[in-house]
Amino acid sequence: MKLNDSHAELDVDEMEWMFRKNPADASKKLDEKKKEAEKVPAQPKEVLLFDPKRQQNVSIAIARFKMSSEDIKNAIYALDGQKLGSEVLNVLISISPTLEEIDLLKNYDGDVKLLGNVEKFFLDLLTIPRYTQRIKCFRYKLQFENRILETQAQLDTLVAATDQVAESDKFRRVLEHILAIGNYLNGSTPRGGAYGFKLDTLMKLHTLKSVDPRVTLMHFLLRQLEEKAPDVITFAGEVPHIVEAKRLSLDQLRADLSSYNTELAMLKGQVRASKNDHIEGDKFYEVMTPFAKDAEEVLEELGRDFNGLETSYQELVSSFGEDPRKVGPMEFFTIVDEFVTEFKKAYRQNQTKEYQTIYEEAAAARAAAEAAKAERLKQEAEERQRQEEERQQNSQETKAIYAEIVSIITTWAGKHSPGNEDAVMEQFKDTSRKFGMDEITGDEFCDQVRQCVGSKCASKIIPNSAKLLSDEEKQNVLLEAFARFKEQVKKEKESKKQQRNSLVSPPSEGRERAGSSSAGRKRNKVVVPLPIKDIEPVVGEEAQLLHKSILESVLAAFGGDPKKMKSFTSHTRKYGNEQITAHEFYQYLMDSFDPDFVGRLVPDLARLLQDSEKRHALIRALCESAPGWAKFAGL
Prior knowledge:
This protein is mainly α and 635 residues long. The protein folds into five domains: 52-128, Methane Monooxygenase Hydroxylase, Chain G, domain 1; 163-346, Methane Monooxygenase Hydroxylase, Chain G, domain 1 (Up-down Bundle); 350-387; 392-498, no CATH class; 508-632, no CATH class. It has 25 helices and no strands. Helix 5 crosses helix 8. The longest helix is centred in the middle third of the chain and has 64 residues, at 353-416. Residues 374-397, 490-522 are annotated as: Disordered.
């Protein structure tokens, strides 16, 4: 059956009026409630001084104790470790009221009964003098023995590990083999010949691979020890404590000792403060006084042990070239332990068939290489013997050639410059040295030898000098220069034949000289006695002879006048040093001598000039004063 309330008609206003609440009934119920409330006395409100989170945390801790605050207080006075163990004391210390909370509790002047459980708990415990310090001292006493035993064990481990590494004879011999290998590999480098090595070297042995990447320097070390010193392979048995020592820290031990002494100082202060407490059941002064004395003695002995360990460890680490301030036991003993691990691993691998095969093949290859080397050395020795025999033969020939050169030079010097034989020889040696050091060319060498001993002797000395050269290329250079030298000498000889009559002759004496001079000046013309194009420089012995002849002729022309001779020498030097021009020099000659004499003098002076520009300039000055000089324009 389906119903629809929209089909029913109701007077809702009347319904609301008829069924409204009765005001009289409501007023009556309110009065009844007030009367009942007046009959029940008002409950006092709980006073909470701490914030809710603090209340919650402390409440949870108190609940775990399962002891009243009074029981806890009595146990603290009695120093009862059975009731209050280290764990309970740790919790009590962790929840101890702060200074601010203590002030809140002290300043509360209301009804204590209204305080919360946490506040009441703290108020009760704070009746103990220096509550927080007392429970810390109590905990220090309870934990002291175990903490000291643990620290002593760590000290003993580090002392044992340090002494074992420092005193192990087998480990020292292993290190000596490592040092020998390192010095050999480094050879003549700055690291060769060392007396020790850095600690990290131990970590590199198993990473340095041989030509066969499967074999490292650690494998090689083990092979050598197996053959040369098999007893040291078991050195790990002499350093058993390094495994434990690598987990320990000197800094942590130092911090622990410092903490123990700091807490002991606090305990002594509390002992002095508790002397006059006089609280029933309080055993703090009675128990803690002898304990403080015993603890002090234990810590002093522990401190001495630590200082001894620190000294021994510093010496050990320093012996490896490391700074003890930077390398602690954890790092040091870890490296040693890892070295031992890799050492054992390499030893086990060396015993396998795979590695035995590697070493056998390497030995065979080495034997073949050594045989080839021996054969090569034999051939080299034979070649050296052959070269030595050849050298000795050449040495005899060299001595003979050199003796011949010395003989030629000394003979020439004795004839042309008596008393200067050694100086001439030294001049030749200096010239030879310059050519050997590439300071002069082959042509310059030939010219300088010629100037030293003349053309004839130079023609004998130069080819012999070439024979003395061990450098074949330099020898060829000198021989080529000598060929050019001979050609030049040949040309000079031919030219000399044509020019032999052109050497300057002194003018006739007296009237003839005066007449000739007068006639020359009257003509004011210079007679050129030979073709200028044939004038070439002279060197060596020929130059010396020409120079001497010129000086004699000039001196005769000046009638032996030293002042005029000095002036001539000065002008000649100035022209050679480019202080005066060719025309200025020529004009000086014309002013000083008969023109015909100048015509014969200038070509000979030109022959002494090695500088072609100066030589041509002087000849041109001569030609320009002669009839038909233009025909010499090509000079």
